[in-house]
Design brief:
Layout: H1 2-30, H2 38-45, E1 67-68, E2 99-101, E3 113-120, H3 127-139, E4 152-154, E5 162-167, H4 169-177, E6 189-191, E7 194-198, H5 199-204, H6 213-228
Parallel strand pairs: 3-4, 3-5, 5-7
Antiparallel strand pairs: 1-6, 2-3, 6-7
Length: 276
């Protein structure tokens, strides 16, 4: 009888261990960082086409994978949606690979999500002006802050859990390549705590976005920060409806209307079906 009890206890202990291992494996799988498989495809295509969220964790920073904004369907220089105040020929394709940190408006205290803005040197974009643009986007009630439910604090040091870098196509490709992504000189990416913004997209916008480049900047930030917050891609919820900020709008709107914001002015989430 005693021997049977010992065998029974061993079986129960083994079963408990299996359950524990299975649960741990499920957690690790669900907690995997977001990754866009379309990134490599975007790089291949550019040769024939011109192309209520939770507080983020540092989990993705340990991953060699990243998320990105999708490829363009034609040349931004031919797009009527490009910012007419910027000559596409004046946007440099390469830079020194060094960055200047935005200093204006930084805070040494405050709560919320701490972020930093870095701009590549010599590319014609003032770091402080770029940081002002990003701050306005993040503070907009239609953004991920949703009228104050989440706050973002600009810093200029390594306390930032989110780093937004604006750089030339060549530099963006190099930085995104460190996460195993081929951005093909055209698109943005997000890897770990880093969001890399392609200068062409920042200055010229997208040929499929019905709005100026300044509005498209809001989509860039909201889309990539959305990935940083743990959101995956979404698709059009129906003809004539606003395209979700997490939709890859540069690949086409599928009947939706261009939209740069995750929420409307009434605080309603502008989402759509998840993309597997």
């Amino acid at each position: 009888m005693a021997r049977r009890r010992r065998i029974r206890r061993r079986r129960v202990g083994f079963a408990g261990a299996v359950v524990a291992v299975t649960a741990a494996a499920a957690f690790l799988y669900l907690d995997a960082p977001w990754h866009d498989e379309d990134a490599a495809a975007a790089g291949r295509e550019t040769s024939r086409t011109a192309s209520a969220p939770a507080t983020p964790t540092p989990k993705a920073s340990a991953s060699p994978k990243a998320s990105k904004s999708p490829k363009a369907s034609k040349s931004p220089s031919a797009s009527p949606e490009a910012d007419e105040s910027v000559d596409p020929a004046s946007v440099p394709k390469s830079g020194p690979g060094t960055f200047t940190v935005a200093r204006k408006g930084v805070s040494s205290g405050g709560g919320g999500s701490r972020y930093r803005v870095d701009v590549e040197d010599g590319i014609g974009v003032d770091p402080d002006s770029a940081a002002e643009d990003v701050a306005e986007i993040l503070a907009d009630p239609r953004g991920w802050g949703k009228g104050g439910t989440r706050t973002f604090t600009l810093v200029d040091d390594d306390s930032a859990g989110l780093v937004i870098k604006i750089g030339t196509a060549q530099t963006t490709d190099k930085l995104c390549g460190q996460y195993g992504l081929d951005t093909g000189g055209e698109v943005n990416c997000r890897g770990g705590k880093n969001v890399m913004v392609n200068l062409d997209r920042w200055q010229l916008g997208s040929p499929t976005f019905d709005g100026p480049a300044t509005e498209y900047r809001a989509l860039i930030i909201n889309h990539e920060v959305g990935h940083w917050l743990g959101h995956g891609h979404e698709t059009c919820p129906g003809p004539g409806k606003p395209a979700p900020a997490m939709m890859q709008q540069i690949k086409g709107l599928q009947g939706c209307k261009s939209n740069a914001w995750p929420y409307d002015r009434n605080g309603h989430y502008l989402g759509g079906p998840s993309v597997p």
